């Protein structure tokens, strides 16, 4: 029997205290567990584990390279999506988004929402020959695979335009919640003057 809840797989390789971590943490806390069955996949410990106020499933994989963890991640998502009418992979950053899209192409019943906070031009900065090779492979895969994503969400207009120019994929732009706080603060300050 298929479940009515949407299976949401949050794939954030480094789920540590950071800007990306805070953003994903806020997103998960916003969702209702009545509608979503949420699983988290990360490499190493999820530093937010004790902070969530809802029951989640955690898959904290050994801190190996993302490349060597691919089949384990695929196996976990395959198991999660079994007997589910809808499974969504929510991923973050170029390399995780590429993995999520490849998994979506293998497990055709899944959907993928990619969050992109980093500009593509960052992939043109490298610090060694190995870094150069790695980032150029990622750049090629972004160009080929991003158009296969169900949705790509960016937090800046610049990144939205850059992704479209680079991969011809329409991107949704969402302002970060912190911007709303700044705008509200400026409005209050103007009133007080």
Give the SSE string.
EHEEHEHEHEHEH
CATH superfamily: Glycogen Phosphorylase B
Query: What is the distance, rounded to the nearest whole angstrom, between the alpha carbons of the first and last residues?
Result: 62 Å
Tell me the CATH architecture: 3-Layer(aba) Sandwich
Biggest sheet record: 7 strands, parallel
CATH class: Alpha Beta
Helix content: 40-55%
- The number of domains is 1
Total beta-strand segments: 7
Protein model, in words:
- The chain has 193 residues and is of the alpha/beta class.
- It has one domain: Rossmann fold.
- The chain is built from six helices and seven strands.
- It has helices at residues 19-30, 70-81, 94-106, 129-145, 157-167, 177-192, and strands at 6-11, 36-43, 57-61, 87-92, 110-116, 151-154, 172-173.
- Helix 3 (94-106) crosses helix 4.
- The chain starts with 5 loop residues before the first strand and ends with a helix.
- The model has no long low-confidence stretch (mean pLDDT 86).
What is the topological layout?
Layout: E1 6-11, H1 19-30, E2 36-43, E3 57-61, H2 70-81, E4 87-92, H3 94-106, E5 110-116, H4 129-145, E6 151-154, H5 157-167, E7 172-173, H6 177-192
Parallel strand pairs: 1-2, 1-4, 2-3, 4-5, 5-6, 6-7
Helix pairs in contact: 3-4
């Amino acid at each position: 029997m298929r479940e009515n809840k949407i299976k949401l797989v949050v794939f954030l390789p480094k789920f540590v205290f950071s800007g990306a971590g805070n953003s994903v943490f806020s997103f998960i806390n916003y969702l209702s567990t009545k509608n979503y069955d949420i699983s988290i996949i990360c490499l190493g410990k999820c530093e937010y584990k004790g902070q969530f106020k809802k029951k989640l499933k955690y898959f904290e994989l050994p801190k190996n390279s993302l490349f060597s963890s691919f089949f384990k991640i695929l196996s976990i998502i395959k198991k999660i999506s079994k007997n589910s009418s809808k499974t969504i992979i929510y991923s973050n950053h170029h390399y995780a988004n590429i993995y999520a899209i490849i998994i979506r192409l293998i497990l055709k019943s899944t959907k993928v929402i990619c969050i992109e906070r980093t500009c593509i031009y960052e992939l043109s900065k490298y610090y060694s020959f190995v870094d150069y090779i790695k980032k150029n492979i990622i750049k090629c895969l972004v160009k080929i695979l991003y158009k296969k994503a169900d949705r790509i969400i960016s937090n800046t207009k610049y990144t939205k335009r850059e992704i479209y120019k680079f991969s011809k994929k329409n991107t949704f732009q969402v302002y970060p919640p912190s911007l709303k706080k700044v705008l509200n603060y400026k409005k209050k300050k103007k009133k007080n003057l």
